[in-house]
Amino acid sequence: MFRQINIGLRSALAFGIIGILMLVLGVLSLVQLSGLNAQITQIADHRVPSLSAVENINKEFLRIRLHTLGLIHAVNRDEQQEYRSRLANARQQLDDQKARYDDLARTPEAREMFDRFLGHESSYWETQRQALDLAASGDTWRASVITRDELGPLADQMTAVLRQLNELQQQRIRDTNDETDRTYALSRSAIMGSPQNSEKIVR
Predict the structure, then answer these.
(1) Percentage of residues of the chain with pLDDT beyond 90
(2) What angle do CA 124, 170, 105 make, to 5 degrees?
(3) What is the largest CA-CA distance in the chain?
(4) What is the mean pLDDT of residues 184-191?
(5) What is the mean pLDDT of residues 91-112?
(6) Closest CA to 52 of 96, 91, 86, 117
(7) Residue 171 sits in a domain of what CATH number?
(8) pTM of this prediction?
(9) How far is it, in rounded angstroms, from Cα 126 to Cα 121?
């Protein structure tokens, strides 16, 4: 029946079908590219900033640990004042990074880890205050004992949670990268066809 149609009409029908197919492929490609853009945006606006915030929290907490030890063992008022200033600065930076991550943490797993960190942190500040009060009163030995037996283990727990958070955020980035690769592959297949079809066409 198709052969009975004149060449002009057949050509028009063929080009019409091709046009429709190209339109469908174009729409599918736009949908896939939109998803690809969303995934890239998620990496840039959420995943990477989350990882950066966790790393900065860890860095500032390390500074707090160092300055706490420095303040406990300061030998004069000038050193004490210097370490108090450094400690206050590190704590402010820590609070800023915590607030940043608090806005970014969305998944239940990330929230649970972050809440666990905050719980340990509360105990850390209370124990730190006790150690610093003892050091200020001249009882450096007892301050050192509290630092070793109580403050140190609390700090280790906080660092362990931060390590887990860091690993979680890195895994999220890898997962999103994998999703991006899959989306790109689907878009490429929609435009160019599968390798098997390409081989058939060449043959």
Answers:
(1) 56
(2) 55
(3) 108
(4) 63
(5) 94
(6) 96
(7) 1.20.120.1730
(8) 0.74
(9) 9
